[in-house]
Amino acid sequence: MPIHIYWEDLTPGSTRELGTTSASAEEIKDFAEQFDPQPFHLDELAGRKSVFGGLCASGWHTCAMAMRLTVDNFLRESASMGSPGLENLRWLKPVYPDDQLSLRHTILEARPMRKRPEAGLVRSRWELFNQNGEKVLEMEGWGMFGRREPATPEELARYEAERAAS
Amino acid sequence: MPIHIYWEDLTPGSTRELGTTSASAEEIKDFAEQFDPQPFHLDELAGRKSVFGGLCASGWHTCAMAMRLTVDNFLRESASMGSPGLENLRWLKPVYPDDQLSLRHTILEARPMRKRPEAGLVRSRWELFNQNGEKVLEMEGWGMFGRREPATPEELARYEAERAAS
Predict the structure, then answer these.
(1) Sign of CA dihedral B58, A140, A19, A135
(2) What is the pTM of this model?
(3) Is B91 in the A-facing interface, judged by CB distances under 8 Å?
(4) Closest B-chain CA to A85
(5) A58 and chain B: CB distance < 8 Å anywhere?
(6) Cβ neighbours around B38 below 10 Å, total
(7) What is the nearest CA distance from A155 to chain B, expressed in angstroms?
(8) Mutate: best of A34, A81, A144, partner B, most B CBs <10 A
(9) What φ, ψ does residue B30 adopt, rounded to 5°?
(10) N or C end of chain A: which has fewer CB within 10 A?
(11) How far apart are CA B163 and CA B157, in angstroms?
(12) What domain count does chain B have?
């Protein structure tokens, strides 16, 4: 897949729909056996008896599914250089077997980088909705992307003046 | 495993060492193929050419490995009722194949719950260190735990007065 999304293309306010995914009961249990062997992620009956009301995916499984959609439908076509982390991650609703999960990605903010003029930072929000329109996951965090053209000293000075003024 | 850790036992300031784990190159690639198929998580050469300097684990794989240690060495013995989310997640250093990763868990804060007097919330910090003592992952977030004894109206009133005063 040729790269055609660079830092300059990630306009604050823009939104992308990043597709739909789901996990079967078997996949939920497989992930849980490997990484999160709590009863409500491994067994239907334990799930029904838990606060979640049924077998449900590990929150880390949900995040990993959102990541797969992000890679397939966005990062793969972009000059992505990885992420330093997230500022916020909320598991809002349980994810049950075969829930149809749709991911929305919104660019919140873009910053040039003084120490790496060939790259820039972007703050994004990910929102994952189930087939009933309920938000099950929300995350906000930073990603680093290559630029079409390196930041000039003038751009960096202008950006820092704007930040200082705001 | 009998449950012997309840909300009352999670004292702010207390620290637990939650064991050591690692992922082989094969395991790093398996996770990435399923959830995060970016070149630097799939291929040694692509890793060497990336900002990470070598094949490295997906950040979500690192989180999932930390979760496994948390379940095996803490949650399994506790009255854990799940987590609403994290306030902060930082991928500080790349995780390379066979890195020996040790997890430290610190209780930061404990809150009773008005709407669920039989449970309480705890804010924790997770820190994952590699064999060189470098911190590779840090997370802070909330968990819900069952209590030995439900909160009394007096305890809830006292807690809310303390919060209002601080």
Answers:
(1) positive
(2) 0.94
(3) yes
(4) B90
(5) yes
(6) 19
(7) 24
(8) A34
(9) -60, -45
(10) C
(11) 10
(12) 1
B83 contact residues in A (CB cutoff 8 A):
59, 91
pLDDT digits (tens, 9 = 90+) for B145-161: 999 999 999 999 999 99
User: Residue B36's domain is classified under what CATH number?
Assistant: 3.10.129.10
Joined together, the tokens standing for residue A111 give: 């910053």
Strand arrangement, sheet containing B15-21 = A15-21, A101-112, A119-129, A135-146, A85-91, B85-91, B135-146, B119-129, B101-112, B15-21
The answer to whether B143 and B28 are in contact (CB under 8 A) is no
- Interface pTM, i.e. ipTM: 0.94
Domain holding B27, by residue range, is 7-111+122-144
Closest by Cβ to A38, choosing from B60, B71, B141: B71
Residues B8-66: tens digit of each pLDDT: 999 999 999 999 999 999 999 999 999 999 999 999 999 999 889 999 999 999 999 99
Q: Is residue A126 in some structural domain?
A: yes
List the end-to-end C-alpha distance of chain A, in Å, as a whole number: 39
